[in-house]
Give the backbone structure.
Amino acid sequence: MTEATQQFFATLPARAPEVLRAPVAGTLRIDLSEGHRTEHWLVRMRPGAAEVDQGADPGDATWYCGVGLFDQLVTGRAQAISAVFRNESTFRGDVVLFLAFRLFFPSPPGTRDPREVAREHARWTR
């Protein structure tokens, strides 16, 4: 596993209050595979809180993803839903957990808040 992925999981609980605002509750198991090896991560989510653990316990949903792709997701170079649509990763179970979890991933590098862009544009046109 990459350092970026380890850091992502380590910071998840501290970031949960700002990310998990919707009424979501359940356990997402994330299976990260590389070759013949698979690491299992369990993310227990509820509004404003997340707990992270490693283990192969069953979850309310399971997301299968390659280590390389997950590294791109945690650095903002790929998007989770796009990866599922392209069949680069697969998902089964409660889709609400996947949709809530994807909010932890950063925006692509160079992405700016549309409100900030609009404010700059308004200043230029005055």
About this structure: Residues 16 and 49 are 5 Å apart (CA to CA). Strands lie at 26-34, 37-46, 49-54, 61-66, 90-93. The mean pLDDT is 91.
